[in-house]
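FORM 12-B: Structure-to-Sequence Request
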């Protein structure tokens, strides 16, 4: 089988392939009308795409008299890609088909967050999948890596990740060398944003803000229909100052949103408010699951203290959302992350504060939504853009689904 890249060096082939993807199932005549290419060209191009196994002939369409047209669709099993979220002491893998649809998910624990260990585990996972019989003949498109912190996606470098304690780690080039396949590295919240913008509810909007709440507080922005990363690392909403002389943050600054409202900050607030010894003396909690467990336990035995703590958090979150609305005038704000589990205790008030205090009418019409995709979105965005880059992108432009 020829390499996908060789088949797709022709501009018109990519246009046809994109059209087929956009339409789902489509006849040659419709592709011709949609692209402006002649029926003869479409027949040639689609034969090449069929020969390369990139598309398939599907069921027969409706006939307007005469022979019924054959409908063409993407052969999603032509190739596969892997996405991995590098979390603190775990890796979360998602395998997708050519359309970026997840077909397999797996979470594995790690003993260490060291970058060598992470590279080895990712390589092991790729080697395991490659050996599955049904994948042997399919093309491996590469790996999308999602990491917390500041990322230089162009060079595949994690500039700094406080959670992982990584600084200037060239994980992209190192993994490419190790597995001999393309690697795309994104900040994990950027990946989350791209997934929601490409296939989620955010796709109706051009200016979107994403905020994720959990053991960290993350942020990302789609502005004018494009992911905005600045020099790499833009959108660190979690490190916006919300209290001038506030708590010390993992980034070294004080009073950052993350230092004030993350799970750890929430646990500290509960400990300060409660008089119940078992809650007060609880030692340091390291993982997200431990913090969630603590909050649930606190809700059972001292609900009032927990409600007071969440109330403080809702004010700070409301101020942060208001600031983002004032600066970017977004159409759409999406809140995600593990803390949504407790959303009844803080989100309504935070949104109210944000809307009521926004400048002029900026807070009135902005859609404020909550994540409905869950953990997979953290990985799926970078996979979708990897597939776009490797297969569907025309002339290096556009990473959206429009033709
Ligand atoms: Zn900070």
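FORM 12-B RESPONSE
SEQUENCE OUT:
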């Amino acid at each position: 089988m020829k390499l996908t890249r060789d088949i797709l060096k022709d501009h018109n082939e990519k246009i046809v392939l994109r059209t087929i993807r956009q339409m789902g199932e489509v006849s040659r005549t419709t592709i011709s009308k949609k692209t402006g290419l002649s029926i003869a060209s479409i027949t040639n191009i689609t034969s090449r795409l069929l020969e390369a196994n990139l598309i398939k002939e599907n069921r027969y369409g409706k006939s307007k008299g005469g022979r019924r047209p054959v409908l063409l669709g993407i052969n999603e099993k032509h190739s596969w890609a892997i996405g991995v979220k590098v979390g603190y002491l775990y890796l979360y893998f998602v395998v997708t088909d050519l359309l970026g649809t997840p077909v397999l998910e797996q979470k594995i624990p790690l003993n260490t967050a060291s970058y060598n260990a992470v590279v080895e585990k990712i390589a092991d996972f790729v080697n395991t999948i490659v050996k599955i019989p049904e994948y042997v003949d399919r093309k491996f498109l590469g790996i999308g890596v999602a990491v917390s912190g500041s990322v230089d996606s162009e060079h595949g470098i994690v500039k700094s990740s406080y959670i992982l304690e990584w600084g200037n780690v060239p994980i992209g080039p190192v993994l490419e060398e190790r597995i001999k396949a393309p690697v795309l590295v994104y900040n994990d919240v950027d990946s989350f944003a791209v997934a929601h913008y490409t296939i989620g509810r955010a796709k109706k909007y051009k200016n979107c803000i994403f905020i994720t709440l959990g053991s960290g507080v993350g942020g990302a922005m789609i502005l004018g229909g494009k992911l905005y990363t600045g020099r790499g690392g833009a959108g660190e909403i979690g490190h916006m100052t919300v209290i001038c002389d506030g708590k010390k943050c993992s980034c070294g600054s004080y009073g950052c949103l993350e230092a004030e409202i993350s799970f750890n900050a929430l646990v500290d607030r509960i400990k300060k408010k409660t008089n119940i010894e078992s809650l007060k003396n609880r030692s340091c909690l390291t993982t997200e699951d431990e913090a969630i467990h603590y909050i649930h336990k606190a809700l059972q035995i001292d609900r009032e203290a927990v409600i007071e703590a969440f109330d403080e958090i809702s004010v700070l979150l409301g101020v942060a959302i208001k600031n983002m609305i004032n600066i970017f005038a977004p159409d759409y704000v999406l809140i995600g992350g593990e803390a949504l589990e407790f959303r009844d205790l803080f989100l309504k008030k935070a949104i109210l504060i944000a809307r009521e205090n926004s400048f002029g009418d900026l807070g009135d019409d902005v859609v404020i939504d909550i994540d409905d995709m869950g953990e997979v979105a953290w990985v799926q965005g970078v996979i979708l853009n990897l597939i776009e880059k490797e297969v569907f992108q025309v002339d290096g432009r556009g990473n959206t689904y429009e033709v």
